[in-house]
Amino acid sequence: MEPKRLTGPEAGALKYDILTALTLIGLNGTTTQQMTVLRLTALVTARYNWRANELSVGQRDMARMWAVNERTVKREIKRLLDSKILTCKRQGVRGRVGAYVLNLAAIAKLSADQWETIGPDFAERMAGYFPQRSENVVKVDFTAASLPSGDPEETRSGTWRAVQHALRKKDEAIHNNWYSRLSLKLCKDRKAEILAPSRFVANYIQTHLFDELHHALEQEFGILDEIRITV
Predict the structure, then answer these.
(1) Start-end ranges of CATH 3.30.300.180 in the chain?
(2) How many CA atoms lie within 13 A of 23 on its CB side?
(3) pLDDT tens, position by position, 72-92
(4) Which of 31, 42, 161, 177 is deepest in the core (most CB within 10 A)?
(5) pLDDT tens for residues 129-150?
(6) CA distance 57 to 200
(7) How far is CA 222 from each of CA 154, 163, 174, rounded to the nearest angstrom?
(8) Which CATH number describes the domain made up of 11-108?
(9) DSSP string covering 81-118, please?
(10) Please, are residues 155 and 209 in contact by the beta-carbon 8 Å criterion?
(11) Half-sphere exposure of 65 (CA within 13 A, CB side)
């Protein structure tokens, strides 16, 4: 699901966040990707039609803005389409300029691992724009490996793998995006400590997914008086 508040009283903050996410993609890419995203950011800032949700600028105008030739413009647009940062809304034909749309879902996915580098407030807003609660929403690919199927350790009670297996059965998308990044540091004396790879992941699970994690832990380890998620 993509946020729809592209115009209106709260749209200004969303636009800045989209531009920030684009910048993160560029800064964490190759030199070529950095230039591509810089050019797109300039184009979006100057010419994106937020009300119609489209970018409709002729290649000649793009070339003039970017101080390049039209061949470079075609190459850059192709690169942005291939990366899915842009999608084609309307093909350009003789006498009519083509139109492109910012693919907010792809921008979120490509920048998600870097949200926390901007700050927890930015990370929280982006997580709010792009919630990870069902199969119909954007899946942020954290490149976490799934548990091997058919492994008897998955279902042996009283193990962390059994906890992960239960969470994956409940909602595979949420498991792959969030729970699979966790590891169990210790569980004894009715206390559990879970390790998260970043403060953002720890905070998100604490505020959005803690009840499911708590239930799965107690199903395997019994009543727990304290569950801590640390980095």
Answers:
(1) 142-230
(2) 11
(3) 999 999 999 999 999 998 887
(4) 177
(5) 776 443 333 344 444 444 444 4
(6) 37
(7) 18, 12, 23
(8) 1.10.10.10
(9) HHTTSEEEEE--BTTB--EEEE-HHHHHHHHGGGHHHH
(10) no
(11) 17
CB atoms within 10 A of CB 147: 15
CA-wise closest residue to 162 among 171, 150, 154: 154
Residue 188 forms beta bridges with which residues?
A: 191
What are residue 96's DSSP bridge partners?
93
> For the domain bounded by 142-230, which CATH number is listed?
3.30.300.180
| 132, 103 contact by CB (below 8 A) | no
Q: What pTM does this model have?
A: 0.57
Q: Which two tokens stand for residue 92?
A: 């350009």
Residue type, position 134, single letter:
S
43: left (phi over 0), alpha (psi -120 to 50) or beta: alpha
Rounded distance between C-alpha atoms, residue 9 and residue 153, angstroms: 52
